[in-house]
Amino acid sequence: MSFKPLKIGKYTIKHPIVQGGMGLGISWDRLAGNVSKEGGLGVISSVGTGYYQDCKYSAKDINSRPLNSENFYSTKGLKAIIDNTRKIANGNPVAVNILYASNDYERMARDACAAGIDIIITGAGLPTNMPEFTQNYPDVALVPIVSSAKALKIICKRWTKRYNRLPDAIVVEGPLSGGHQGFTYEQCKQDEYKLENLIKPIKEEMKNWGEFPLIAAGGVWDKNDMERMMALGADGVQMGTRFIGTHECDAHENFKEIILGAKKEDIKLLKSPVGYPARGVRTNLIELVEKREGPAIKCISNCVSPCKRGVEAKAVGYCIADSLSDAFLGRKETGLFFTGANGYKLNEIISVKELISKLVNGEKS
């Protein structure tokens, strides 16, 4: 089958493929810009922009890490990434993913709008006040990530009552995605929470609110998966992990090497200071943490509110900001390497152009 374009607010995406926002620093200007250039929707991660270009835009402490949330989520860094992404994207729409659990969410949403972003995607919590921060930018499309019909109902009800608006699209993310999950450990293993079983009840709830597209995410790998999701009622798909296997991905070569070398049994649900499980590769860091021999936890960057300024980090045994930044910097011993459940299928590095062609036209044997 051939795929229809994806309409998000006033923007039309040629191919209904949204590249998942991957932080820290895995989807910045090079990846997001090239995905948009090739007709998908490139998505910048707003996480850790203080690390952009070797902390050029960030105040640092003695450990060369961005100090506090205003520097970890650097306004100048985010603007520079958006500007450079736009140059590559050749006039096509560009999105940013901003975690609702982030400290400074409001400022980052306003920063993204001021920097000229087209679309904001938000998960890691229920963004019930998301439109409040974009009201001066009516052209910015808003896309919440949901994992249940109940979550969608709460968002639509509050957005309608308070702001007289609805989402421009939603991402429905199942438990095979990389990084943080919207489910408990137990739910991640139960059939009712599989992506294919989430779409129908959410589509039913959507009927109560109006017309906007549904984008399916979590475990989508190839054209066959795309067709399967469309048959279930999705209008587009979001894919993160497959884009790690591209030349343009902003990840360090060591990061790509870790993912390409991972076997199926190496990819696990891991404890996280955010309070929900996260999916990544079992590496040296995880082994150190299990022995309570992990790196010192200092909460330099104060990145996410559920961590309570390092309290939860100390409980699980690692700082997520430091560990994700170490992965971005290519430090295999102390890095935290997120991937979706299908990450073990990655076996080559290709161009974004070639990957988009494979997804749209099918794999060539």
Secondary-structure-based class equals alpha/beta
| Rg measurement, Å | 19 Å
Strand sequence of the main sheet, in spatial order? 3-11-10-8-7-6-5-4
Biggest pleated sheet? 8 strands, parallel
Structure summary, number of beta strands? 13
Query: In one word, what is the shape?
Result: globular
Strand content: 5-15%
Give the total of domains.
2
Looking at the structure, the CATH topology of the largest domain is TIM Barrel
Mean pLDDT, to the nearest integer, reads: 94
First-last Cα distance: 18 Å
Kindly state the percentage of residues in helix: 25-40%
Low-confidence stretches: none
- Provide the CATH superfamily of the largest domain: Aldolase class I
What is the chain-wise order of helices and strands?
EEEHEHHEHEEHEEHHEHEHHEEHHHH
Structure annotation, total helices:
14
Q: What is the top-level CATH class of the largest domain?
A: Alpha Beta
CATH architecture level-2 label of the largest domain: Alpha-Beta Barrel
Explain how this protein is built.
This protein has 2 domains: 6-255 and 342-361, Aldolase class I (TIM Barrel); 261-328, no CATH class. The longest helix is centred in the N-terminal third of the chain and has 15 residues, at 75-89. The chain is globular, with a radius of gyration of 19 Å. The strands form 3 sheets. The protein has an 8-stranded parallel beta sheet. Strands 9-13-12 form a 3-stranded antiparallel beta sheet, with no helix packed on it. It has helices spanning 29-37, 69-72, 75-89, 105-114, 149-163, 185-188, 195-206, 223-231, 241-244, 253-261, 284-290, 311-316, 320-328, 352-361, and strands at residues 6-8, 11-13, 17-19, 42-45, 94-97, 119-122, 141-146, 170-173, 179-180, 214-217, 236-239, 267-270, 278-281. With 365 residues, the protein is an alpha/beta fold.
